[in-house]
Amino acid sequence: MTKRWLITGCSSGLGHALAARLAAEGEQVVATARRPETLDALVTRHPDNVLAVALDVRDAEQCAAAVERAVNAFGGIDVLVNNAAYGQFGTFEEVSDAEIAAQFDTNVFGPWRLTRAVLPVWRAQGGGHAVFVSSVSGTVPFPGLAAYTASKFALEGAAESLAAEAGHLGVKVTILQPGGFATDYSNNLVMPENRIPDYLPVSEGLLGALQGMNTKAEINSPELFADVVWRLGQLDLPPLRLPVGPDSEAFLEPAYDARRSEYDQVIKAGQHTLS
Questions:
Q1: Which of 61, 222, 242, 251 has the fewest CB atoms in 10 Å of its CB?
Q2: What domains sit in the chain, N to C, each tagged with a CATH number?
């Protein structure tokens, strides 16, 4: 059955690959980007089932307008993919108030305000599927990505809350946890204005790895991500969490094991009674 998709951050990378895959499958796609002209070629290839819409998820009026255009064009929205995001580099002390606020405005408040705008549509039509593109950073902290990691932890908390609150309305929620993909993420990293030399030993290694990510032959392709999300959209009972890419499991499994081990050592050993 053909589904109606609204996707953010489609100018390049994961969002563009997903929009292209869905369009090729005959799905109805509202592909959004801050610069919708980046989607001209996709619309030309699929004029009947792709609508390009200007959307900056930091703008509440644009969020509302994108939802309205999706409903007017296709009669509703079945799947919302909150994909638009960027990475703020910097350790905890290096990131300023303005930088952390900007990071959350795009990575957390943007998906929140757009999903909030879609929820009345889903209540009226009896359900829908909210997909939140998180990261392995939503579980695994990386030194030098404090703001980005915090935003992804927050995004996952918001998504889990939505699942608990709106499940009875037919709203399904999936949190995607991608590993490394060949996108412009590393090229678009925002560097903090304040760099503190004392943190270079723990942050510079990651920065170098991120900046060289697109040159690695083994890095995951955006087409792999698109295939996973396409197949996810066909499921009647999608999972709440879904690792994406073989390397995601390599990051997540040790992290979950470490948390369980700490729980066993601290809680079961009675150390929580120290207070």
A1: 61
A2: 4-250 (3.40.50.720)
